[in-house]
From TrEMBL:
It comes from the Eukaryota. This is Transposase-associated domain-containing protein. InterPro entries: Transpos_assoc, Transposase_21. It holds the Pfam family Transpos_assoc. Residues 5-85 form the Transposase-associated domain.
């Protein structure tokens, strides 16, 4: 008789964490495998039945157990035949619950609602008719279950179309080749077949998922978008600021030539249908209120952004918005990267991601809930002109705040008016300057101290320095405030930390600045730049009605900062040539600022010599560090193979 393994479909509990029932079931699976040594190879590996490996990849039992906890079991793997269990007779399989049978019936239903998370059951017992957008989506779900021909049990229309389109993309198949292949397949099928006859109709069917994108022409100099009133192709054929042509010149006869090809294109992925899709999933919709009614195991620990002061202040300031717990709170992040890392010609591409924070911690940072909203083209970074490309997203956010959009909640089976608000951005420090409008270069680059900074310019290093600026943030009476040796020599810190400006105060200061001009012939910097302020422009985020009330508007990505600081410290300790911060100029400045006589340059035989610092490793110590790094192993997918970068002979990374 088949055992009850319905726990395999209940990986998470009501709080979004790994359920105890599932943990116990995974241990049961591991014990079962260890009792069947025939399925374990000579290296101690077994087939991994997680949703990604799907019994195609072998791994150690420890990693298989971790994969199952992170991803869950592959669909339909109730009978562990690949791990030594005998196949159940057909009648015993009826012990599987009806709920799980629905889950494994058609994986293409899961594909349709991939943006909404796990599987659904949305059409039972509707208390209120879905709005037109939701009705269109559910109609597509029904078509996913429609057989490819009368009596077909292996394929539905959607499963066949998606596999064929994926095949075309994977093998770079031409459209004419695809159409010919489909014609041959249709001739082999019964007369009742319903397969779309060409690529155009197949693509139209998939586009009904409602998760498409818009192409918006842009000036390659980042001056403007051909958007809304400037989108007309006949009236706006060149940039109104720099005069750069909008379209590439056509070759040959201009009358019979192909369509206009713009120099630069912004890809914009509207976030409204993606947020609506979250509520179309019965399972995901119930978690969209987790920030309000989710269980916290320790109230003194911030386990979710909703526990922080910034979220609480936003709710207190905008009470009407907070009264509807299904209203979505969003975070935005962006960074540039080189698409062609191995190429000599760099290409800086800037994706902009939006994340809904209503979900529990275990869900909101998963890949399927991080929405790509903008794909900003290169080859150069937009810099301070990033606002030009953010225009479509900001316009959509203003609509979501002011008017909202009618959305169907599959959990409560009712329509409601969904609104959304952007709480903050997340970026590294250079991108912070692009998003906020406060320049991160120069003596005033600190966005906290601003004009009250205590930074100074190094006499020999010729760079701004913030050494010893942190002591003013220590409590009054702290021993470090009176320390005359460890920091700046003979300096006792008596000042208090500078007062942080509120959002309203910053907005009033920004309103005094000249309006930014993003053209190629843009004006110079605002008066007082670098002396009393570092504002380059008034950021486009200030157009959001609630932006000035946010307690935190921009967050720094700790991962980037930690990585950069570690690189500098590690290269200095390992004394990497050309990358160490312990150079002659640093020693000269050290003599002027600090009391470190044992580190000052020594003049011998007509030359200055740099005494070896106690924090610098010798060759033997560097080799030991390299041997340790060579042996490091990380879980699959968490880090690259750093051991390949180690040179044991020279003791270098």
């Amino acid at each position: 008789m088949a055992p009850d393994r319905s726990w395999m479909s209940r990986r998470q509990d009501c709080t979004g964490h790994l359920s105890e029932e599932f943990k116990k079931g995974v241990m049961e699976f591991v014990d079962f495998v260890e009792r069947n040594p025939t399925v374990i190879d000579s290296l101690g590996r077994i087939l991994c039945p997680c949703t990604k490996c799907k019994n195609r990849i072998r791994d150690e039992i420890f990693w298989v157990e971790k994969h199952l906890c992170d991803r869950g079991f592959m669909e339909g793997y109730i009978n562990w035949t690949a791990h030594g269990e005998e196949r159940w007779v057909e009648q015993d399989a009826t012990n599987v619950t009806q709920e799980h049978e629905e889950e494994i019936t058609n994986p293409y239903v899961d594909m349709v609602i991939d943006a909404a998370g796990d599987n659904l059951n949305v059409m039972e017992g509707l208390e209120e008719d879905p709005n037109p957008s939701a009705s269109k989506f559910y109609k597509l779900l029904r078509s996913a279950d429609e057989p490819l021909w009368d009596g077909c049990t292996k394929h539905t229309i959607l499963s066949a179309v998606t596999q064929l389109v994926n095949l075309k993309s994977e093998f770079n198949m031409s459209e004419s080749c695809y159409n010919r292949m489909v014609a041959i397949i249709k001739s082999m099928l019964p007369e009742s077949e319903k397969l779309p006859e060409d690529f155009y109709r197949s693509k139209t069917m998939i586009q009904e998922l409602g998760l498409g994108y818009e192409k918006i022409d842009a000036c390659p100099n980042h001056c403007m978008l051909y958007y809304k009133e400037t989108s007309d192709k006949t009236s706006y054929v060149a940039c109104t600021m720099c005069g750069h042509p909008r379209f590439k010149p056509k070759a040959g006869d201009t009358v019979n030539s192909s369509r206009d090809v713009p120099y630069s294109i912004l890809r914009y992925f509207p976030i409204t249908p993606r947020l609506q899709r979250l509520f179309m999933s019965k399972i995901t919709a119930q978690y969209m209120k987790w920030h309000v009614d989710g269980v916290r195991h320790d109230e003194s620990v911030i386990t979710h952004p909703a526990d922080a002061d910034a979220w609480k202040q936003f709710d207190a300031t905008h009470e009407v918005f907070a009264q509807e717990p299904r209203n979505v709170r969003l975070g935005l992040c962006t960074d540039g990267f080189n698409l062609f890392s191995g190429s000599k010609t760099p290409y800086s591409c800037w994706p902009v991601f939006v994340t809904p924070y209503n979900l529990p911690p275990s869900m909101c940072m998963r890949r399927e809930y991080i929405f790509l909203s903008l794909l900003i083209p290169g080859p150069k970074s937009p810099g301070k002109r990033l606002d030009v490309y953010l225009r479509p997203l900001i316009d959509e956010l203003k609509v979501l705040w002011d008017n909202g959009v009618t959305t169907y909640d599959a959990w409560e089976k009712k329509n409601f008016n969904m609104k959304a608000a952007l709480l903050w951005t997340i970026s590294d420090f250079p991108a912070y300057g692009m998003l906020s409008g406060w320049s991160t270069h120069g003596r005033l680059s600190c966005p906290i101290c601003m004009k009250n900074t205590k930074s100074f310019r190094l006499q020999h290093g010729a760079k701004p320095c913030w050494f010893d600026c942190h002591r003013q943030y220590l409590p009054v009476g702290h021993a470090f405030r009176r320390d005359r040796y460890s920091f700046k020599k003979s300096i006792v810190e008596k000042s208090f930390p500078p007062k942080r400006m509120s959002g309203v105060e910053i907005l009033n200061e920004l309103d005094k600045l000249d309006e930014a001009n993003f053209g190629a012939n843009s004006r110079g910097k605002n008066g007082g730049f670098g002396t009393i302020h570092n504002w380059v422009r008034k950021s486009i985020f200030w157009e959001l009605p609630y932006w000035s009330t946010n307690l935190i508007r921009h967050n720094l990505d700790i991962m980037h900062i930690e990585k950069n600081i570690f690189d500098n410290i590690f290269n200095t300790v390992m004394e990497v040539k050309g990358k160490s911060k312990d150079n002659a100029n640093a020693r000269e400045d050290l003599k002027l600022i600090c009391k470190r006589p044992n580190l000052e340059l020594v003049f011998e035989n007509g030359k200055y010599k740099k005494p070896k610092a106690t924090y610098v490793l010798d060759s033997q110590q560097r080799r030991i560090v390299c041997e340790w790094i060579k042996q490091l192993k990380f879980p699959n997918g968490y880090a690259s193979n750093i051991s390949r970068c180690v040179n044991l002979a020279d003791g270098k990374i």
